[in-house]
């Protein structure tokens, strides 16, 4: 009795849990999966056979009606060409990879680098003194009144003019003997002397220049100095004339 009661509950527990499967149940599951795969194989073969039959029917119709089949193909090609040509410009891109909306990327434009033009050389600073020295020439001659006449009516006159800046001398001057032409023609020579003396310390002698008044030329920085002229006549007489030279600009 005790043994029968223990066997009974053990059998009921196995049926309720279902945690242990018997050998019969495993063999029943595997044959079922093979049957499902075998059932799907005929369906795919039937679809392939249908496509082949359609192609065979088209080929037989093309052989039976070659003119009509050619006209149909030409119509299809023309229709496709017309459809392509009717598309807006830019719908079809040649040589570009089509991108979907999700993979499209917007690239920033390449910045343009502005290069400043080469600067022109700066204009030279104006130098009035230099410009005046280059463009300006000597000033006009300024004539002064003659000195008091001598016993034979001769006098000393002088003129001067300014020179352009930049040189060693500021003035150019000339001293002459003025008088009647008959008196000037009777002069043999004129001996000129300066006070203060010239740099070389020599006296200056003028001959055969009666038409020009036996001139004495010179130049200097300006100011004043004295000039004397010792006149030697052809008849052996002499007389001396003096004059103050002022270069006041």
Any idea what the radius of gyration is?
68 Å
Query: Could you give the order of strands across the largest sheet?
Result: 1-2-3-6
As for the CATH topology of the domain at 137-247, it is Immunoglobulin-like
The CATH architecture of the domain at 137-247 can be named as Sandwich
Residues in β-strands, percent: 15-25%
Order of helices and strands: HHHHEEEHEEEEE
* Strand count: 8
At a glance:
The chain is an alpha+beta fold and 249 residues long.
Question: How would you describe the overall organization of this protein?
Answer:
The protein has five helices and eight strands; from the N terminus they run ααααβββαβββββ. With 249 residues, it is α+β, with helices and mostly antiparallel strands. Strands 1-2-3-6 form a four-stranded antiparallel β-sheet, with no helix packed on it.
Q: Topology of this structure?
A:
Elements: H1 2-17, H2 23-64, H3 66-85, H4 128-135, E1 142-143, E2 155-162, E3 171-178, H5 181-185, E4 187-195, E5 204-207, E6 216-220, E7 223-233, E8 238-247
Antiparallel strand pairs: 1-2, 2-3, 3-6, 4-5, 4-7, 7-8
Helix pairs in contact: 2-3
């Amino acid at each position: 009795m005790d043994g029968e009661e223990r066997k009974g509950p053990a059998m009921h527990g196995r049926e309720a849990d279902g945690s242990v499967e018997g050998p019969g149940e495993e063999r029943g599951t595997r044959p079922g999966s093979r049957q499902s795969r075998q059932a799907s194989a005929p369906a795919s073969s039937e679809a392939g056979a249908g496509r082949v039959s359609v192609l065979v029917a088209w080929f037989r119709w093309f052989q039976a009606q070659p003119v009509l089949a050619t006209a149909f193909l030409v119509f299809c090609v023309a229709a496709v060409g017309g459809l392509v040509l009717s598309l807006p410009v830019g719908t079809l891109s040649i040589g570009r990879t089509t991108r979907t909306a999700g993979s499209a990327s917007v690239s920033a434009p390449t910045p343009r680098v502005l290069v400043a033009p080469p600067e022109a050389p700066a204009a030279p600073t104006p130098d009035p003194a230099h410009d005046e020295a280059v463009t300006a020439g000597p000033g006009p001659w300024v004539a002064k009144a003659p000195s008091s006449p001598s016993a034979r009516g001769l006098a000393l006159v002088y003129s001067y003019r300014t020179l352009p800046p930049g040189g060693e001398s500021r003035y150019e001057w000339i001293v002459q003997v003025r008088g009647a032409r008959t008196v000037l023609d009777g002069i043999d020579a004129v001996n000129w002397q300066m006070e203060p003396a010239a740099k070389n310390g020599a006296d200056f002698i003028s001959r055969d220049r009666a038409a020009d008044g036996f001139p004495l030329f010179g130049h200097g920085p300006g100011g004043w100095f004295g000039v004397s002229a010792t006149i030697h006549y052809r008849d052996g007489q002499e007389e001396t004339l003096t004059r103050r030279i002022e270069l006041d600009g």
